[in-house]
Amino acid sequence: MSSALTDLFPQPIVQAPMAGGVSVPQLAAAVCEAGGLGFLAAGYKTADGMYQEIKQLRSLTSRPFGVNLFMPQPEYAESGTVDLYASQLAGEAAWYGTELGDPDSGRDDGYETKLAVLLDNPVPVVSFHFGVPTREVLESLRRAGTLTLATATTPEEALAVRRAGADAVIAQGVEAGGHQGTHRDLPENDGSGLGVLTLVAQIRETVDIPVVAAGGIMRGGQIAAVLAAGASAAQLGTAFVPTPESGAHALHKQALTNPLFARTQLTRAFTGRPARGLVNRFLREHGRYAPAAYPEVHHLTSPLRKAATKAGDTQGMAMWAGQGHRMARALPAGQLVEVLAAELAEARTALPAAPGGETR
């Protein structure tokens, strides 16, 4: 199955699906054309919006690509916690001249409708975030000719992915930008995330399906490291944010290497789920008070984030980024894949030879 997955793309490089407008068809197409696996992010889109992006991507490339879905979320929030957080954000709403969003705007992200579209119009690869689908869903996608992956942040989650019947698991280390794909968001687990190399090694000893490593990977040498640890490919998100094909806001792209944004942090401030972003005023002021309430907090802060972006205020924007953000390179996406592949080849050449002359 590792070959079934990696045969789809010559280079072991996967462009992470980044919801919120970053992973546009132009970006995915450029990655695919350069030999990587490009992804569209269906999160926060309507089913028709997803379908239109798939059509556009197919007009740009004939190579295999993937689509990522968010799993529906159970209710975790304690009564009143979202209302309390909303009262704290009232000053932000007044500052930006907008209203807070409706926290009860939906929990399933149109999951069933999107699945129906993907079964009627199959794509080569579908991945899942925030949990794992039922065995029936994965079997139906397999019958449609689609390979499936799901994110895991622990060996136990990887085992759940394997038992459900997914073709591969995405091992997301704590270094990764954006939302952690934990299957359940339990505040008592905050701060217990594993680094990608440790996670890949542990998952490899737990399940017998291919592993795609994700988390803070910005250079070909790091790809070589996760491959040596047992991964079949590496998934990169932040590395592709500053590319000209990316749909990220220009201020977000610039902030990745701006000395004013020296570090990242996992926070619930913007969405109610742990997500790694550049530390700014909003994160510092509200992160400690945000409840574990996704997607309620996401809906609540949506108008604030849009208003901050419109005003060009990076101190109020959610600028997701992995720990390696200072290593970002504003190269065209296809060229970035080529550079990463060259760095990977160089790193592999530098590896010591195993007994018998084989490179490790």
Polypeptide structure, described:
By secondary structure, this protein is α/β, with parallel strands linked by helices. It contains 14 helices and eleven strands. The chain is globular, with a radius of gyration of 20 Å.
In terms of topology, how is this protein built?
Blueprint: H1 2-6, E1 13-15, H2 25-33, E2 38-41, H3 47-60, E3 65-70, H4 81-88, H5 90-96, H6 111-120, E4 125-129, H7 135-143, E5 147-152, H8 155-164, E6 168-172, E7 178-179, H9 196-204, E8 211-214, H10 220-228, E9 233-236, H11 250-255, E10 264-267, E11 275-278, H12 281-286, H13 296-311, H14 333-350
Parallel strand pairs: 1-9, 2-3, 3-4, 4-5, 5-6, 6-8, 8-9
Antiparallel strand pairs: 7-11, 10-11
Helix pairs in contact: 2-3, 3-6, 10-14
Observed structural traits:
11 strands, three-stranded antiparallel beta sheet, eight-stranded parallel beta sheet, alpha/beta
* Number of continuous helical runs: 14
* Strand element count: 11
Helix content: 25-40%
Oligomeric organization of the protein chains:
single chain
**How is the main sheet built?**
8 strands, parallel
The amount of beta strand, in percent, is: 5-15%
3D shape: globular
Summing up helix and strand content along with how strands pair, one would put the structural category as alpha/beta
In the sheet with the most strands, the strands line up as: 1-9-8-6-5-4-3-2
Mean pLDDT across all amino acids: 95
